[in-house]
Structures are given as C-alpha cells and as structure tokens.
Amino acid sequence: MCTPDPPRLAPIGLSVYGRIEHLRKTIAALRANTLASQSVLHIFSDAPKPGDEAKIAAMRTFLRTIDGFRDVIIVERQTNSRVANNRGGQRELVDTYGKMIWMEEDIVTAPGFLEFVNRGLAFYQSNPCIFSITGYTPPIEIPPAFTQDAFALSRFNAWGFGIWKDRYVLIREITQTAVQSMNRLKLTRNGQDVYDMALADATGRLNALDVRAMFVQAELDGLTIFPRASLVENIGHDGSGLHCRNTQRFHHQRLWDKQSGFSFDPDIRVHSMIRMLQYLFRSCP
C-alpha cells in the first residue's frame, strides 16, 4: 500500500443548466475541499431552451460570483444542447490538460473528494487496467475485514469522476449489434441494469456517457477506483434531473470525513464480496 506524491492537479469541469439551488450546494461543498484554492474550475453553462431564458440568466449571474478557487473560467454556450455542452467541455479539458475531474450541478462533495481523485489519477496514470477514479460509492456495507482506502470494480460511475485523455477517447457510441453480441454475463457482472441501459443507448432511447463507458469497461475489463466510503452525494434524485428519478436509494446519511493520506494499492484487484454487494444493490429495482 502506498500514498502517492502530491499530483499536478487536474482541472475541474462542471456542467450546469438551471438548477441554481442545487448548484449553490455543489459549489459550497466543492469550495470546502482541501485542494479547492489550488484548483482551476471550468464551468460550462448550457444555453436556455425556449421559456428558460430568465432562469439561465439568473444562473449565469450567480456563476460570476463564484470564488474560492485558483481560477474560475466560465464558458457560456450560445445554443442549447446538454450533450454538446457536457462532451464538448470534457473533450476541451482532456485535450488541453490530458486529464480532468468532471461534475454536474447536483454533485455535493466531501472535503477530501479532490484529494482522493487527484491522488488516484497520479497513482494509476501508467496502469492501463485502471479506467477512471470516482468519488461516489454506493450505500453498501463494506466487509469489516476490508481496510483499504479504495476498491476496484469494472463499472464506471460519473457522479464526480476523474479520467485521463487516453482512457476518455475510448468511450464511443454503442451499436445494437455490439450489445447483443457481447457475452451478457460479462456485461451484467456489475449489475443487471447495465444490459438494458446499453441497449437503450444503442437504440437511441438514451444518450449517456456513463453507460457507454460501462460498455467499454466490460469489453476491456477496465477498472474504476472507488473510495471505501462515499465522498459524493448526488442531490439530483429529487425528480429535478433528466435521468434520475425521485428516490432515496442512492442516499448517504453522511460522507467520508477523511481528507488526506489516501493510500492506493498498485496491485489492486476486484474484491469478490464487494462486487457481489454492489451487484445486488445495482440489480434491485
């Protein structure tokens, strides 16, 4: 087990639309991170749909008040497109910096989130088996005998994640043929929901980067690094988000209070019990 040297910090990308009250909480929590004052925050503001002009104007006024970071760079889109806003911002960051941390306006983080993801990006950069680093961990009961700071699963999670350019560019559109020809057991070993989501994306009923990343990880046996306790709470499960229904299933009573000294295993492997617990959680309705 090793603690990596302090990394060159990844830029933070944040996509926003009109949920200003969610964003206030997201920014307040992110500003409280131990590395916030050393980090550059890039905010990508989508343009309004018809009827939302006042809401987006209020959002952009608030964006100009944000401080507490080394720099805040705001990109105001002129045309509305959730996908173009998100993926255009992501591609801009990885092309310019080679890596990024990405969030949306409903992701509330613990103070150690930036520390964990940045150190994970530094530690596993040269390990091609590691696809991404996430700050979110599902509300599952980690076995008491498991004492490490991080575990690995072959399932991408987009609720506050870090990724390198050479992994990001592997994410691509999914075809129906590709989904149906893949070994279904391999695709669903991290949750029965993956197959249905992949098929929905392939047939145009969904357009989700996280689902496409899950599919690529299943193909490549790539791993995502998770913290042993969640450093992220998604507050968008209140019916306000595009893809997230109103539910408490993913809620955490409290986030992990560890802020420094995160250690990572260079020979990290999937822990069979944690994978089973996560599979059962993800496979429940």
Observed structural traits:
Spore Coat Polysaccharide Biosynthesis Protein SpsA, Chain A, eight-stranded mixed β-sheet, globular, alpha/beta, disordered N terminus
Please characterize this protein's 3D structure:
The chain has 285 residues and is an alpha/beta fold. The chain has one domain (12-283): Spore Coat Polysaccharide Biosynthesis Protein SpsA, Chain A. The chain is built from ten helices and ten strands.
Short description:
With 285 residues, the chain is α/β, with parallel strands linked by helices. It has helices spanning 20-31, 53-63, 82-97, 113-124, 165-168, 176-181, 184-187, 193-202, 209-220, 272-283, and strands at 12-16, 40-45, 71-76, 99-104, 107-109, 130-134, 150-153, 161-164, 223-227, 232-234. Helix 8 (193-202) packs across helix 9 (209-220).
Summarize the biggest pleated sheet: 8 strands, mixed
**Any idea what the CATH superfamily is called?**
Spore Coat Polysaccharide Biosynthesis Protein SpsA, Chain A
Give the number of helices: 10
Helix-strand topology string: EHEHEHEEHEEEHHHHHEEH
Are there runs of 5+ residues with pLDDT below 50, and where? 1-6
According to CATH, the fold-level topology is Spore Coat Polysaccharide Biosynthesis Protein SpsA, Chain A
**Which structural class do the helices and strands define?**
alpha/beta
Just name the CATH architecture. Answer: Alpha-Beta Complex
Helix content: 25-40%
The coarse silhouette is globular
Instruction: Specify Rg, calculated over alpha carbons.
Output: 18 Å
Distance between the termini: 36 Å
Beta content comes to 15-25%
Number of self-contained structural domains: 1
Spatially, the strands of the biggest sheet line up as 3-2-1-4-8-6-9-7
DSSP strand count: 10
Query: Class, according to the CATH hierarchy?
Result: Alpha Beta
Q: What integer is the average pLDDT? A: 93
